[in-house]
Design goal:
Elements: E1 5-8, H1 14-21, E2 25-28, H2 38-44, E3 50-53, H3 61-66, E4 72-75, H4 85-90, E5 94-96, H5 103-118, H6 121-129, E6 150-154, H7 158-169, E7 173-177, H8 183-189, E8 192-193, H9 196-202, E9 205-208, H10 222-227, E10 233-236, H11 245-253, E11 259-262, E12 282-284, H12 293-312
Parallel strand pairs: 1-2, 1-3, 3-4, 4-5, 6-7, 6-9, 7-8, 9-10, 10-11, 11-12
Helix pairs in contact: 1-12, 5-7
The protein binds glyoxylic acid.
């Protein structure tokens, strides 16, 4: 019997590859840090029944056109804005992702970024290594209090709830904005639902976790940053497209907001010419929200399991429904 071909667009934990190899001929773009070139991807998917992808690949109409035998696309991520879902659904291609599995790791990193940005941790670490530390100073590298501050969470999904649980441990006053109200979270964590504007006006830390959709495109722009307190910290752990980066740069530069912690950018990898990187009050990370060893390994295995289910034509563990997006 002919074994189906699977294209894995990046080096993966061996456990995931071994799972796939039991059922399929597997092509792996064997690099940790370099994305598969488009020409290689287009060539390799020609006879592929499955693609195991990640946030860095664009699985668009051109790729789908090049892959007439495709049955399943599986991404090792919760977000799937890099995949043309509508087009894939039209062609009957199943799509898998890995929600749930990365909730706590991503909430940990997002909260770490919040603390690092508020308390200037990355700046302080660089200060020491660059030999700038001459003496202890009363107001040297002073930041914003986290404990007891007000946090505003935009997007109260699984990760938003994870952040809220951590914030409750820091005795923070929790505000949130979401498409729908979450009565359980309001009750268990004493979180207050409010309009976006009210959240922006009242929060000391604004944490953006909304998925990237046409509705959330550039949802944080000049108007929104102007509403924030001049002492407030903005954290983005969602997608860069949700933010107008020029407006963010100006808000940080002009002191309209105090600092930003960014794990995601409009263009990734972010260009060294991006003006945001020139600001000392920006803590920038390379999209590592879910990057703990355990979590990334589990994500890879679940993505492989989703892919195998798609090849077999059975239900995926976690399936993105094209008609619901
Ligand atoms: C990461 O950004 C993800 O969507 O899992």
């Amino acid at each position: 019997m002919n074994r189906p071909k699977v294209v894995v667009t990046r080096r993966m934990p061996q456990e995931a590859i071994e799972l796939l190899e039991k059922e399929a001929n597997v092509y792996v773009w064997d690099s940790e840090e370099t994305a598969i070139p488009q020409t290689v991807l287009l060539e390799q998917v020609k006879d592929a029944a499955g693609i195991l992808t990640n946030v860095a690949d664009s699985i668009d109409k051109e790729v789908l056109d090049a892959a007439p035998s495709l049955k399943v696309i599986s991404t090792m991520a919760v977000g799937y804005d890099n995949i043309d879902i509508a087009e894939a659904a039209r062609r009957g291609i199943a799509i898998g992702h890995t929600p749930g599995i990365l909730t706590e790791a991503t909430a940990d990193l997002t909260f770490a970024l919040l603390m690092a940005s508020g308390r200037r941790v990355a700046e302080g670490a660089a200060y020491v290594k660059e030999g700038k530390w001459k003496s202890w100073g009363p107001m040297l590298l002073t930041g914003q209090d986290v404990y007891g501050a007000t946090i505003g969470i935009i997007g109260m999904g699984r990760i938003g709830e994870g952040i809220a649980r951590r914030a409750a441990g820091f005795d923070m006053n929790i505000l949130y904005h979401n498409r729908s109200r979450k009565p359980d979270i309001e009750k268990s964590l004493n979180a207050e639902y409010c309009s976006l504007d009210s959240l922006l006006e009242r929060s000391d830390f604004v944490v953006l976790l909304a998925p990237s959709t046409p509705e959330t495109y550039r949802m944080m722009g000049e108007r929104e940053f102007k509403l924030m307190k001049s002492s407030a910290v903005f954290i983005n752990a969602s997608r860069g497209k949700n933010v107008d980066e020029q407006a963010l740069y100006e808000a940080l530069q002009d002191g309209e907001i105090w600092a930003a912690g960014l794990d995601v950018f409009d263009e990734e990898p972010v260009s060294l010419d991006n003006p945001l990187l020139s600001l000392s009050n920006v803590t920038a990370l390379p999209h590592i929200g879910s990057a703990s060893i355990k979590t990334r390994t589990k994500m890879a295995v679940v993505a492989a399991q989703n892919l195998l289910a798609g090849l077999a034509g059975t239900e995926l563990l976690f399936e993105v429904k094209g008609d619901t997006v």
